[in-house]
Write a structure and sequence with these properties.
The complex is a heterodimer of chains A (323) and B (307). Chain A is of the alpha/beta class and 323 residues long. Chain A is built from 14 helices and nine strands. Chain A has helices at residues 14-33, 38-57, 61-68, 76-83, 125-130, 138-153, 171-175, 178-189, 206-210, 231-239, 245-252, 256-261, 280-299, 303-315, and strands at 85-89, 102-109, 112-119, 158-164, 196-205, 217-221, 225-227, 267-269, 321-322. In chain A, strand 5, helix 9 and strand 6 (217-221) form a beta-alpha-beta unit. In chain B, the strands form two sheets. Chain B has a seven-stranded mixed beta sheet, sandwiched between helices. Chain B has a two-stranded antiparallel ribbon with strand order 1-2. In chain B, helix 7 runs parallel beside helix 8. The chains are: A alpha/beta (323), B alpha/beta (307). Strand 9 (321-322) of chain A pairs antiparallel with strand 4 (105-106) of chain B.
Chain lengths: 323, 307
């Protein structure tokens, strides 16, 4: 986890940066004049936490979107490292190639073997390219499905971590059936005999997210978003301009609070004060707490009942009127 | 089949077709940038007898009644004009006899979604303009004597977009199939999910897939007929999940729209990209079916699954 001065700050996080800079100045003064300023510095550090709390207490939907894309935010492999142990990464869809935007493998959750799968983003330019910005190709979804089937065969629960700006809109992706790959995953996930828990840890954009997002429990981290289209693309199509992304984010009601309110997700997992990028360990602790809590309950249900409940869960979603 | 005209697929999802088309038509009048007619075929169907119709592909001019006689397939280049559920039902059901199901389910602006226009206003305007209740109709009837449930999309209704109503009608259609032991045909023609219903529209992908899994357990055949155009949420769910996936010739079918792909890869797309023939070649369709052969092929399939 980057520490100041290597931290990056979003525009609405600038007041925090200012506090850090003030602390820096105090430290320099203290060193020069040999005066003990630890008390003042301690207070300032407390002020930073207060500021983090204050900023995240009144975020606009668009700011949540920005937080979900924070350059310092932990990605799937980070959560896997911090939440699970003994991760054994497995590669390839056995057909085309190994999609680096989708990772997965067996891991231990509190001593129990589970299958963890998720989209992976890169943390620097080179890695971002290698991970294709977390946008999986059809082979990524097929790799995910292969791993889910493997888990099902050996009766291991599945946990998916969702963080994608969308499935990749490329020429080869279409040739290899991006639509079919996502459709197949959705269809097969709803029929999986083992418990499935899906967590949106960052961006949950459209079919690309749902392609690994059908489970007995679907939950969202506090500063993640989940909806049918990214606010930018929605703005381009409905407002005919890229500029209305903030309005689109509001209209789409894509925050965790909205989604829980609609009953489209089951739970909101809290993040450390100011967002997951402030403390990877705590972020993972909250995730682990949720998973450990819900898994025994899901495991106690008979597989066929669980499948029927899953079908019913999604079957209830929607709003209409009958004349 | 070569198509020389390009259209703004996404414009249809805004439900503002007419404005867009008028605007485009005006521009093309002066600049001649776009070829062919820009009014969608769906809009054409209510034109009075004797009016002319120009093929967007080969520019052949024919009367609307002649075109109708030919099942809205161009007699010269066999371009399949876009048609709605009324036309498909007339083509497929014996003597145009069928019972419409779940027509009482209507969309609702639950989120009070407002882009350039309020969603409820959009719905009211379309309801005032057409007889359509939503972007999908479900009907049960007979094809050459064989019973079948057909869910058919109307592109005219906010680009045939997938929202809660389509999801619910689809679900009940599956229940009807299971209850009456009938095969299920879905005729897709849609720009994708209905953005004005936000995540609720996305969840319809899972909802419909869940129902298909029940249909599959009941061992009833599900045929997915993809027509021009079929994109986004439809191809990422039930559109691609047929026991048989079939398509009309030359239909544009894909996950991401051509504009988005072009902007992403910053290259021109090859000719024929995302057309039915391209999908067949890449292994995603069982076969392509000419509209004129559709009815007989369907009854043949039903019998094949039954025997």
């Amino acid at each position: 986890m980057p520490q100041y001065p290597n931290r990056q700050f979003l525009d609405f996080e600038q007041p925090i940066k200012t506090l850090y800079e003030e602390i820096d100045k105090l430290k320099q003064t203290a060193e020069k004049s040999k005066i003990d300023m630890s008390e003042t510095i301690g207070k300032m550090e407390g002020a930073i936490i207060e500021k983090r709390k204050e900023i995240t207490s009144h975020l606009t939907p668009w700011q949540r979107v920005q937080l979900s894309r924070h350059p310092d935010r932990p990605y799937t492999l980070k959560y896997i490292e911090k939440t699970f142990s003994g991760f054994l990464e497995l590669h390839g869809d056995r057909n085309v190639k190994d999609d680096k935007a989708m990772v997965g493998g067996f891991a231990q959750l509190d001593g129990e073997t589970v299958m963890v799968i998720g989209q992976q983003k890169g943390s620097n330019t080179k890695m971002r390219q290698m991970r294709n910005f977390g946008m999986a190709n059809p082979e990524g979804y097929r790799k995910a499905l292969r791993l889910m089937r493997l888990a099902e065969k050996f009766n291991k629960p599945i946990i998916t971590l969702i963080d994608t700006p969308g499935a990749f809109p490329g020429l080869e992706a279409e040739e290899r059936g991006q639509g079919e790959a996502i459709a197949r995953n959705i269809y097969e996930m709803i029929r999986l005999k083992v418990p499935v828990i899906c967590v949106i840890i960052g961006e949950g954009a459209s079919g690309g997210a749902l392609g690994i997002g059908v489970g007995d429990r679907v939950c969202m981290l506090e500063n993640s978003w989940y909806t049918v289209i990214s606010p930018e693309n929605c703005s381009t199509i409905l407002w005919r301009s890229w500029e209305k992304k903030e309005t689109a984010a509001e209209q789409l009601r894509l925050t965790a609070i909205d989604m829980k309110g609609f009953g489209l997700v089951d739970e909101i997992i809290p993040e450390p004060i100011g967002g997951a990028h402030w403390d990877y360990n705590d972020a993972a602790v909250y995730l682990k707490k949720y998973l450990i809590n819900v898994l025994p309950e899901l495991k106690s249900i008979d597989p066929n009942t669980r499948i029927n409940q899953r079908i019913e869960k999604f079957g209830k979603m929607g709003f209409w009127q009958e004349s | 089949m070569k198509k020389e005209f390009e259209e703004d697929l996404e414009a249809n999802l805004t439900g503002e077709e007419e404005v867009q088309h008028e605007d485009a038509a005006r521009r093309s009048w002066f600049k001649r940038k776009k070829k062919g007619i820009l009014t969608s075929t769906a809009d054409k169907k209510e034109t009075p007898e004797g009016l002319w119709n120009k093929c967007p592909n080969c520019n052949l001019i024919s009367t609307t009644s002649d075109l109708k006689e030919n099942l809205f397939v161009c007699p010269k280049c066999s371009y399949h004009h876009r048609i709605g559920s009324d036309e498909y039902y007339e083509i497929v059901f014996d003597n145009n006899e069928y019972t419409e199901l779940f027509g009482n389910i209507l969309s609702k602006d639950f989120l009070n979604f407002t882009d350039l226009k309020n969603y409820q206003k959009r719905l009211d305007d379309i309801h005032a303009k057409t007889d359509l209740k939503d972007s999908m109709r479900v009907a049960v009837g007979k094809v050459n004597g064989e019973g079948i449930v057909i869910a058919c999309m109307d592109f005219e209704f906010i680009g045939g977009s997938l929202g809660s109503v389509m999801g619910e009608k689809f679900s009940r259609a599956v229940d009807h199939c299971i209850e009456h032991r009938l095969p299920f045909l879905v005729i897709s023609k849609s720009g994708g999910a209905r953005m004005m219903e936000s995540a609720f529209s996305l969840m319809q992908l899972a909802k419909t897939s869940g129902k298909l899994s029940q249909l599959s357990d009941a061992q009833l055949p599900y045929i997915s007929l993809l027509t021009d155009p079929t994109f986004g949420g439809i191809s990422a769910s039930f559109g691609m999940l047929g026991d048989l996936n079939i398509a009309e010739p030359g239909a544009l079918i894909g996950f991401a729209g051509p504009r988005v792909i072009k902007e992403t890869i910053k290259k021109d797309l090859p000719e024929g990209f995302q057309r039915s023939e391209f999908l067949l070649e890449h292994g995603f369709l069982d076969f392509i079916i000419d509209r004129k052969l559709l009815k007989d092929k369907l009854s043949q399939l039903i019998i094949l699954f039954k025997n």
